[in-house]
């Protein structure tokens, strides 16, 4: 029996409790300071133990899932690691790169698993998108574009970049097996006190690709979409589609052989659109099962702390870019870049 404590019974915490409770050989404890949430958790999952005391839970579990507000990710993760528990932290890994580095160092020193909750790296459709890129089926990659829009939910402790963009940054890093070296970001607060609409440009050097990210808490339509544009074909991922989450478009532009020196695209290609079959398994369930396999020593973590640190560093760079009104450079540690490239 693997004993797991889920700290925080909010939006993501409740999902983790649901998934973990359904996995054989897993015993779940819910930790939340809010009495109403504890009552709700006990009613929904009567087989789970429920407590308000993290210290009480840490003495009786093998692993901890941290699903609290972002400001508590680092402190709670460190407490769990020092108590000898393996840790999965919901995105983003921490509220700063310093906190993320402390988590990584502590996990390494104590020989424990530290896993970043980058759920989309466990999505079969995203796996298929990377297969398309690496097989050469899309040709040379021109750019990646993603949009994550909705009306809310506004967060009290982070802006929209820290709340939504971690998904898209981790997707781009995963698809390219790389980390960006420059971030240019624009953002503004409209309805609330914090930035609620933002645009990011991530510039990668190896490969030389730009990724564009649009996130918003203030949009009438819910959008969860990513596009990879290549010289041969383009592919789209729509997480809200019931079927055909991945579509491959035989579309593009070219230059006539007798085109002028400007290289102005004069030929447009309009071919077929295909939707390959992608067997669906809930990404969070794949992620949690993988975490348990890592805890049990039968798998190597696919989204280790270094992956989480890489995303946090981009988020910090985006904040600097918005604040200073200029491109922010990233000097990514070699160990982090190597880890992201390897997984």
List keywords for this structure.
9-stranded mixed β-sheet; alpha/beta; Rossmann fold; 343 residues; Dihydrodipicolinate Reductase, domain 2
Explained architecture:
This protein has helices spanning 11-21, 35-44, 54-58, 73-82, 97-110, 124-134, 160-176, 283-295, 305-324, 334-342; strands at residues 2-7, 26-31, 49-51, 63-66, 86-90, 114-117, 141-151, 182-188, 197-203, 210-216, 218-230, 234-238, 246-254, 267-274, 328-329. It folds into 2 domains: 2-118, Rossmann fold, CATH 3.40.50; 121-283 and 311-342, Dihydrodipicolinate Reductase, domain 2, CATH 3.30.360.10. By secondary structure, the protein is of the alpha/beta class. A hairpin with an 8-residue loop joins strand 8 (182-188) and strand 9 (197-203). Helix content is 35%, strand content 28%. Helix 4 packs parallel to helix 5 (97-110), helix 5 (97-110) runs antiparallel to helix 9 and helix 7 crosses helix 9. The protein is globular.
